[in-house]
Each structure stands twice: as structure tokens, then as C-alpha cells.
Specification:
alpha/beta, Rossmann fold, globular
């Protein structure tokens, strides 16, 4: 994998800042679909009343807010992310929910800097997989945890198991002749197997690593509804289209709608089941 880590992180910063408004607009839709993933990560990480929790790449506040509810008023959650815009919406969500125990910190996974053994648990929902030096970041996180504390992270599965991403990605790549990135390139599908995701934590020095599977089901009213969702929240796909489509961006999004209609068997509702992997380990 030949990428410039700093350049990659800078692009991620721009892309997620640009997608933040969309994430906020679709927050209720997402929460209905993936709340159980946040809850399971918090459970796997061993969060309990009074826990000190680190959420890496928390985005608009998940699973940080879920962890804060479990940790209660005596607990503390630090939610970190590379995107100030995403964190801004996280602060708004926390305030609206009356959760005052979450601190939002703008920092990427590679630059995390906290006292040793300052946390009792760590979580990352579809976040650490975007870091170019993920194993190094995992090792840093391990140093911030009390010995014996737990971490839990998630990834999406193989492309054919994650149609909400593979449909628009495949359509865009075929339309513009974009080759698939090398295996392991940071992104939403970079750790698509149990071995790959477990390897991230094992590479960071975590022990007793275990991986389990879950599903996230997205239900859309129509293919156009699906495309509106992808356009709003899928930063990697937005960036791919912006980089290659030129004046034909509308046509590119229309092609995604057509591909979604093919998957749905027509213009009606679209139900997509997507594989999720959850890995946990002990510091």
C-alpha cells in the first residue's frame, strides 16, 4: 500500500467536514438502523457505571453518547475525531440529550495523546479502520488503558456483504474506470474479514482478541431515497465522484439510482442488509 499518510489524513479531514451536515440530517435514520451496534460495542468494551471511556473517531457522537448513558453521571467519556464539524454536531446531540459527561476533542487517531492508564475502556465504530497506521494507533490507545481494560471496534464486511456501499462504489468505479484500491487501503471496507480486523488489534498489542458478526439493515422508500442518503453521508463516495465526474456529477448520481433500482427490482422500496464485524480485545 503506497499512500502518503499525512496527505490521506488531510483528505479525510476535508471529506468528513463536508459530510457532517448530511450525517446530522440523517441522524435519526442512522440511529434506528445501527443503535444496536453502538450498544454492542459498549458492552464488548466492558463499559459500566463510573467508567472512563475513550471513543476514537466518534464522528457525530457515537458510540460516545451510548457509552455515556451506561457510564452514568460518575463516568466520563472523551469523544475524539479528526473533523471539527462532526464533533460540533456531537456536542449539539449531547446537549439535546442532557448528557454532560462527554468531552469532544478534535484530534486524529494518529495524534492521540492522553495520560497512561487514564481510561477503563475504548471504542471505535467504523472509525479506526480509516487510519493509515491503524496498528500503531491501536498500540497508542492500549497505552491509554488500564491494564486489563477492554477495547471494541467495528468494520464493515466484504464488499458483496455491504451493498449500501458496494452498489455506489462499484457503479462509480465502472463508470469512470477507477481501479479498486489495493487490499488494506484505509477506508470503510479496509478490514472486511475477521482475520483482518483481529489483526488490527493484535498488531496493537491487544490480547484475547475475538471477532463476531452483526447486521445493519437500511430500508429506503425508493432508489432515489437511497441515493440521497449516500450523497449526504458517504464521504469516500462523494470524494470519488467529485474527483472524477467533472461536470457530469448529476449523471454519476443518476447511475447510482439506476443501480439501486436494479438491486430493488424496480422503483419501489429498497431493503439492504449489511454485514458488520465487531472485534474486542484486552489491554
Amino acid at each position: 500500500m503506497a499512500i502518503d499518510p499525512e496527505g490521506f489524513r488531510a483528505a479525510q479531514h476535508r471529506n468528513w467536514d463536508a459530510a457532517a451536515v448530511g450525517w446530522n440530517e440523517w441522524r435519526e435514520f442512522n440511529d434506528r438502523a445501527d443503535r444496536h451496534i453502538s450498544e454492542r460495542l459498549v458492552e464488548l468494551a466492558g463499559v459500566r457505571a463510573g467508567s472512563r471511556v475513550l471513543d476514537v473517531a466518534a464522528g457525530y457522537g457515537e458510540p460516545a453518547l451510548t457509552a455515556a448513558r451506561v457510564a452514568g453521571p460518575e463516568g466520563r467519556v472523551v469523544a475524539t475525531d479528526i473533523s471539527a464539524e462532526m464533533l460540533g454536531f456531537g456536542r449539539e446531540r449531547a446537549a439535546a440529550a442532557g448528557v454532560g459527561t462527554v468531552e469532544f476533542v478534535e484530534v486524529g487517531a494518529a495524534a492521540l495523546d492522553f495520560p497512561a492508564a487514564g481510561f477503563d475502556a475504548a471504542v471505535s465504530r467504523w472509525g479506526l479502520i480509516f487510519e493509515p497506521d491503524a496498528e500503531v494507533a491501536a498500540a497508542r490507545i492500549r497505552g491509554f488503558l488500564e491494564p486489563g481494560a477492554r477495547i471494541a471496534i467495528s468494520s464493515w464486511g466484504e464488499p458483496d456483504q455491504v451493498p449500501f456501499l458496494s452498489i455506489p462504489m462499484r457503479t462509480t468505479r465502472e463508470r469512470f474506470g477507477i481501479p479498486r484500491p489495493p487490499a488494506g487501503t484505509p477506508g470503510p471496507l479496509s478490514r472486511p474479514t475477521p482475520a483482518a480486523l483481529a489483526g488490527l488489534l493484535e498488531g496493537g498489542g491487544f490480547a484475547a482478541v475475538a471477532v463476531e458478526q452483526a447486521e445493519v439493515i437500511f430500508e429506503f422508500d425508493s432508489p432515489a431515497h437511497f441515493t440521497a442518503y449516500v450523497k449526504a453521508i458517504a464521504a469516500p463516495i462523494r470524494a470519488m465522484i467529485a474527483a472524477h465526474a467533472g461536470d457530469a456529477e448529476d449523471d454519476a448520481w443518476a447511475a447510482i439510482t439506476a443501480a439501486a433500482a436494479d438491486a430493488a427490482g424496480g422503483p419501489g422500496p429498497l431493503r439492504l442488509s449489511n454485514r458488520v464485524l465487531l472485534a474486542s480485545g484486552v489491554a
